[in-house]
Amino acid sequence: MTKVPRHERVRIHPYVDRELAKRLAEYGAASGIASSAVVQAALRQYFDRTSDTALILRRLDRLGRGDARAHRDLELLSEAFAVWVRLWFAHTPSVSDDAKESARRTAERRFAQFVEHVVERFTGGHRFLDDLPREVLADEVELANLAAGARAPASSDPPRGLDGE
Question: How distant, in Å, are the alpha carbons of 57, 61, 135, 141, 154 from that of 159?
Answer without folding.
Answer: 21, 15, 6, 15, 11
